[in-house]
Amino acid sequence: MAIEDELTPNGVKVYKAMKEQGFLSEEKMGTAERITQTSKLPKNMVLNALQELQTKGFGRRKVREKAAGYYLVK
Predict the structure, then answer these.
(1) How far apart are CA 36 and CA 43, in angstroms?
(2) Distance CA 23, CA 16 (A)
(3) Among 37, 24, 11, which Cα is nearest to 70's?
(4) DSSP 3-state of 69
(5) What is the pLDDT of residue 1?
(6) Whole-model pTM above 0.85?
(7) Which residues, at least 6 apart from 60, have a Cβ–Cβ distance to it below 8 Å?
(8) Lowest CB count within 10 Å: 7, 49, 58, 74, which one?
(9) What is the C-alpha separation between 50 and 56, in angstroms, rounded?
(10) In the chain, what are the domains?
């Protein structure tokens, strides 16, 4: 099953932006701000897409001191 079948168009854009930036492990996490810049979507859409990725098991969120970090697991 293709990722496009499981995620919304914004979810796919954010997924591809994260993969392109190499946010693939806890050691290489990216902030919502960096993902917003890469995906060229408004921040609220990126945050919704990040929530979708977490809900569907594609991404994880790690709380840190200043900003939460996001990375892909699938």
Answers:
(1) 6
(2) 10
(3) 24
(4) strand
(5) 64
(6) yes
(7) 26, 54, 70, 71, 72, 73
(8) 74
(9) 10
(10) 8-72 (1.10.10.10)
Q: Where are the alpha helices (DSSP H) in 1-74?
A: 3-6, 9-21, 32-39, 43-55
Question: In this predicted model, what pLDDT tens digit does every residue of 19-63 receive, in sequence order?
Answer: 999 999 999 999 999 999 999 999 999 999 999 999 999 999 999
Residue 52 neighbours by CB distance under 10 Å:
18
Question: 10 Å Cβ neighbour count for 2?
Answer: 7
CB of 24 within 8 A of CB of 71? yes
* Structure-block tokens of residue 41: 């979507």
Q: Are 62 and 27 in contact (CB under 8 A)?
A: no
d(C-alpha 22, C-alpha 40), whole Å:
17
Tokens 């392109």, residue located: 20
- Angle CA 67–52–68, to nearest 5: 10
